[in-house]
Each structure stands twice: as C-alpha cells, then as structure tokens.
Specification:
Helix content is 43%, strand content 11%. With 221 residues, it is α/β, with parallel strands linked by helices. The protein folds into two domains: 138 residues, 3-Layer(aba) Sandwich (Rossmann fold); 69 residues, Orthogonal Bundle (DNA polymerase, domain 1). A six-stranded parallel sheet has the order 3-2-1-4-5-6, with helices on both faces. Helix 6 links the parallel strand 2 and strand 3. The structure holds 6-O-phosphono-beta-D-glucopyranose (BG6) and magnesium ion.
Length: 221
Amino acid sequence: MQPKAFIFDLDGVLTDTAEFHYLAWKQIGEQLGIPVDRALNERLKGVSRMESLERILAAAPRPLHLSPGEKEQWATQKNALYQELIETIRPSDRLPGIDGLLNEIRSANILLALGSASRNANLVLERLGLADAFDYIVDAGQIRFGKPHPETFVNAADHFGLPYETCIGVEDSAAGIEAINAAGMFSVGIGSPDALSEAKYRVADTSLLTLGGILEAYGIG
Ligand code: BG6
Ligand code: MG
C-alpha cells in the first residue's frame, strides 16, 4: 500500500541545526565543568531542552545539584546561544537532497507533516523558507511527552486521520527512531548505523534520500 503521509523531524534532517544545538550545549558544559563530547551529544539529539540538560548533568564527573530555578537559567542561556547561531540560517542551508525529496513526496500526493521537539521549530522553518511546505506542524508546544515517546508522530497521524502503519517518519536521532517505531510507523534514519540501529531503513546522509529508495524499503518499490 502507498504510504499516506511523511512526518519529518527538523533539526539534523531538514538542516544542520543538530550541530548548533551541540555547539551551544558544549559551551554550557564548559561553564558547568562537564565535557560534552559527540558521544554524549548523540543522546541529546531529539530530546527536549530540559531533558538534554538533565542528561548533561547526569554525565558530570562530580555530582552537581542545581535547583529547578538554576536549571531554568542554564536552559535559557543555552537557548540564547542557540538562537544566536541560527540567525545565519538561509534557504540555502536546507540539507542536500531535501528539496528533491519534498518535491517527490508532493508530486506523489502524499501528505507532509513536521514533527519537532524544538520550541524554535517555526523560527527555523521561516529562515529556511519552508514555513508553508508542510500540511501540518507538531512542535514541543503541542505535546505532553517528548521523543522517544511516540506522541509527536501519533499526533500528526491523528490530525490527518490516518492509520499509523500508513505513515513514514524521518529522523536523525535514536530517540526519534524509537518514537516512530513505538508509534507503529515505518522509520527512516539519517546517520550512522551505531546510533540508528533500530531504523527500518537508513542512509548515511540526506543526499542519499530518494522517494524510490524509501518506498522500496517500505515494501511497495
Ligand atoms: C530537537 C533537537 O529537535 O529539539 C534537540 O534534536 C533539542 O537537540 C530539542 O534539544 C529542543 O529544542 P529547543 O530549540 O526547544 O531547545
Ligand atoms: Mg533531529
């Protein structure tokens, strides 16, 4: 059966904001005395701002006990650093292969949703010139449970009134792939096999994404 909808993650899928989240957390980590390396960063991808901070604090060489107010301050500071970094984003920062894939999906009359954990999703979409590219957008403001909980993806399918198995989710994070699988959808991973071993179909980077390749793996190619 032809899939009825694609649900795309934003950060690290449509554009390389995953790197900006990393750079911002790295700076916060330096101020807190906690090294944030790429291995730790892999576990921050896809999870909310506050949960990311909790995971960084859990990696502290010596336990740090911060009050809820202090945590809010660090999270706010991280977001200020992140927002500075995303000021430079332009339509030309869409990752390779994304425009082609979105066009192919549209031409095949398949619905398009965005499912992001970020409260900056609309801002980034605007800067990319993709604010009108999706039929529906779910961001952190609309859901109670972040990835790896399936709510983000389920919310989009429910909005369209579609059975979950007719939807395909596209993600660069382990948390996101877990969420798509838990929703009963077909998961497409972008990144390394180590991080995304649970993806039903995986490519190393976005330039390798084609509708034909995904549909073949989904079972109708
Ligand atoms: C996700 C990113 O898309 O959004 C995470 O993968 C990030 O790294 C999360 O923590 C929340 O983003 P924001 O912009 O609300 O801090
Ligand atoms: Mg992502």
